[in-house]
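Sample pair:
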Amino acid sequence: MLKIFLSLLLCSVCAKYPSDFVFGASTAALQIEGAWLQDDKAPSVWDNLAHLPGFIADGTTPDIAADSYNRYKEDIDLLVSAGIRHYRMSISWPRIVPKGRKNTTVNEKAIKRYQEMFEYMKQKGVTPYVTLYHWDLPVVLSLQGYGLVDRNFSDDFLYYANASFYHFGEYVKTWYTFNEPWVSSVLEVMKDKEKAEKPYNISYHLLIAHARTVKLYREEYQNKHKGKIGIVFNTGMSYPKDPNNTKDVEAAYRAMNFSLGWFADPVFFGDYPEIVKQRVGNRLPKFNEIEKGWLKNSSDFFAFNHYSSSLIEEGKYQEQNDYDSDVNVSYSNDPSWDYTDSGWAIVPKGIHDLIVRIKEYYGDNIPIYITENGMANKETTREEALNDQPRIKYLNDYLTNVKKAIDEGANVKGYFVWSLLDNFEWWSGFSKRFGLVRIEYGEDPKRIPKASLSWYSDYIKKNIAPETSIE
């Protein structure tokens, strides 16, 4: 009997996550802050797009959204009440530097408000993880230049980043330069005629801006503030549709290298994957030796967002010398897979296999953080929204596979749900709901916790190691 008791006790200990593992929730400034012109904030490119007729699916704008710029205390209190002590958020470039450009005015009103936010988090025991760029480019940079392919982009971004490090560094110990650079490089290119070169030019400018920002932080701030810095990638897991078909295997390999590898290889190895260089050729901007030195190992961790996976087979694109033909793959889904309200396949095994791939390719000991994972649930009624059982199943199944990867030796250090709140979901507006907390939109947005917030709170309490448990 004693042996059985000890065995059960040991199993319960084994079930815990590592003692330094963090559970958190994520948001982004443009999607929840609202207050779009308050405190001298300038419009972002998304503010601009949302006010043009026909661009957002449901015709909404992020003008108010969840009004988190003014109601941040409510959001932090929701985190604390659920036992979530780690909060990934972004700050707004057009709030901090409204004119966008280097050597222009830094907005003291916005600095003061964000400092108040961070001070409140500190008082409540919540740790901020801050993204500098979560797609809200100051619109003036597009109007006065070429946006992400402007030759001055990295100078302007570095100026904004430096202001953020200087004013918020005592509070923020984990920084991310860019969120999902693949999305900025590929999905922001709307004209077919630009697909030959523009995705690669954007990726080059983003990577150089990232590398220069990390260099600045490490040289000027890291020792003083004892923080970490990196970048957030995004990728699904690509499986060959027919594992016995050589072309499908090669296509899956290309898909991973033209999504994750395109950005992660320069950040950790100093240059693009060979297959990307071979297939893109002279259309791919080359890094010089100084830039390669800046880039190599320019992240203190491996952070990524993951939502879904795909079956991959050889594509049928003609050789057009553009991004689609460079990758030349076709995507499909297994008939057995379910879908989220966004139409994304639910494949929990994918997050395990992706973690294993990262571990094997980028190093056994690299600290891995899942900075976004979650689903849009169909919530046609208030009752359906609050009892969001599909989201609970999704989170449980994905976390089960994260834990499996940890048990197999992966150095996963954290997991952040997307998202704490329902939010302005880019092109979809308010029509897709990812939140653990329901937002009832309007002039006075209301916050109502869903069943998934209670579930996540219980999951954390049951799985967190004893020495990190929260009363």
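The CA atoms of residues 197 and 242 lie 32 Å apart.
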